[in-house]
């Protein structure tokens, strides 16, 4: 009997039940706490979300955060992929600059954010660069490992058939790097939007992080949760409707190869 070892995406009913169980757990916590200022119930947070959406505040701040996430994510992916591929292909470059990646990986995100604000100013450019710098090193490490894990037999076959550098990059390297690229994209979104909130918390005048800072000062737990979960909902949609769909398509050749080998 053939065993399916591939990653399985939960079906819509399973996903819905899982989220519902989390909401039930939240409701139980609200009952046990019995204090809406500390743990408001899901229905109360939902009413707050609807009120903020009706006033236009939720959409305005969500869009500001989403735009920063997209710009920082795109910049980090482009730089990280380029650096990772170069370091993976060149042993000399990896020897000389591999330590730089380790340094940037271990600089706290808060330090990078503060330095960017000090050097560039409290503006949008500093915010996006700070977020991108925090993620670029992680993408570079993942792609470097992916390049180094490429099957050498496939490379040898490409050389035998006289495949040019451009065709080798498109037809040999990139298909094998897609799982690493997909992992970088998924982890990138999960981390980048959290860093964006910190950036907005410290030095922006709009966005979900700014609103969380505002309602933190007012001790409004319900509003903090309303804005936080609104953006979490967006991230869940991107994860299950976009990223996993892209990953299934780009790694289809691996599943077909595994099936033929079995």
Percentage of residues assigned to helices: over 70%
In total, how many domains does the architecture comprise?
1
How many strand elements?
Answer: 0
The first-level CATH class is given as Mainly Alpha
Q: Within the CATH hierarchy, at the fold level, what is the topology? A: MetI-like fold
- Give the low-confidence spans: 1-6
Determine Rg (CA atoms, Å).
22 Å
| Strand proportion | under 5%
Overall description:
The chain is mainly alpha-helical. The chain has a single domain, classed as Orthogonal Bundle (MetI-like fold), CATH 1.10.3720.10. The protein is built from eleven helices and no strands. The chain has helices spanning 12-33, 42-55, 57-89, 91-106, 109-120, 124-148, 152-160, 165-203, 208-217, 221-250, 252-261. Residues 1-6 have low confidence and may be disordered.
Tags for this entry?
262 residues; mainly alpha; MetI-like fold
Question: What layout of secondary structure does this protein have?
Answer:
Elements (H helix, E strand, L loop, with lengths): L11 H22 L8 H14 L1 H33 L1 H16 L2 H12 L3 H25 L3 H9 L4 H39 L4 H10 L3 H30 L1 H10 L1
Helix pairs in contact: 2-10, 3-4, 3-6, 3-8, 3-9, 4-6, 5-6, 5-8, 6-8, 8-9, 8-10, 9-10
What is the compact description of this entry?
The protein has 262 residues and is mostly helical.
């Amino acid at each position: 009997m053939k065993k399916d070892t591939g990653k399985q995406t939960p079906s819509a009913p399973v996903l819905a039940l899982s989220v519902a169980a989390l909401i039930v757990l939240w409701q139980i916590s609200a009952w046990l706490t019995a204090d809406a200022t500390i743990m408001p119930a899901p229905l109360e947070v939902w009413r707050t979300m609807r009120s903020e959406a009706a006033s236009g505040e939720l959409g305005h701040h969500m869009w500001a955060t989403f735009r920063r996430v997209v710009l920082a994510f795109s910049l980090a992916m482009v730089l990280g992929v380029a650096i990772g591929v170069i370091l993976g292909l060149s042993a000399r470059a990896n020897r000389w600059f591999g330590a730089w990646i380790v340094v940037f990986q271990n600089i706290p995100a808060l330090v990078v954010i503060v330095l960017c604000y000090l050097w560039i100013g409290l503006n949008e450019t500093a915010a996006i660069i700070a977020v991108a710098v925090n993620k670029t090193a992680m993408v570079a490490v993942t792609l470097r490992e992916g390049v180094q894990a490429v099957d050498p037999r496939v490379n040898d076959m490409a050389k035998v058939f006289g495949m040019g550098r451009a065709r080798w990059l498109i037809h040999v390297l990139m298909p094998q790097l897609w799982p690493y690229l997909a992992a970088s994209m998924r982890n990138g979104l999960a981390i980048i939007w959290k860093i964006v909130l910190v950036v907005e918390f410290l030095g922006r005048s709009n966005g979900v992080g700014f609103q969380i800072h505002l309602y933190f000062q007012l001790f409004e737990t319900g509003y903090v949760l309303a804005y936080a979960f609104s953006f979490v909902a967006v991230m869940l949609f991107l994860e299950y409707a976009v990223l996993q769909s892209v990953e299934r398509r780009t790694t289809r050749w691996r599943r077909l190869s595994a099936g033929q080998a079995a």
